[in-house]
Amino acid sequence: MPSSRSPFAGSRQSRGRMSEGNVQGVVLTGIFGVGKSTVAAEMAEMLEERQVRYAALDMDWLTWAYSADHDEGAEHRMMLINLSSVVANYLAAGIERFILARTIRTQGEMVSLRGALPFPLTSVRLTCPLPEIRRRASSDVTTARQADLREAADMIASAEGDGLEDLSIANEGPIATVASHILDRLGWL
Known about the structure:
By secondary structure, the chain is an alpha/beta fold. The chain has a single domain, classed as P-loop containing nucleotide triphosphate hydrolases (Rossmann fold). It has six helices and five strands; from the N terminus they run E-H-E-H-E-H-E-H-H-E-H. Strands 2-3-1-4-5 form a five-stranded parallel β-sheet, covered by helices on one side. It is globular.
């Protein structure tokens, strides 16, 4: 007979679990190359050092597929479906803090992201001057990266995604300093 017991029962992940009312999330957003994934990874390391139960997700990986669906919103909808399943699994494991990373382009995307999550979400827009982004990407000269740089320049010119954030943080200093600043602002340290 299958056990109804959680696979995490009695494990390190379940001990001392916070109630779901204490679960919080942050989404790091901004243009390509601004450092969303890098800052998310540093934030995750800092939480782990403090033994905070966290999950860090680069939401782009939840959409990396080709479905031949040319509907503009299809990729975002797929990400939300996948994210809901992944978040449910992490919540069952006792995760308290969610660090998400993805470029959020429109108010509709932000509203649907918040609506898909069963916890409060703070959005942090990382900023960085385009010349610095070009410098960072210079070691990766693939065709895809060149297209990403053009898109980043277009997003800056059109202000796409601006104004959707709760906080805006410049990502121009040491990564550890930026990550610590965000965690402090969130009250997670």
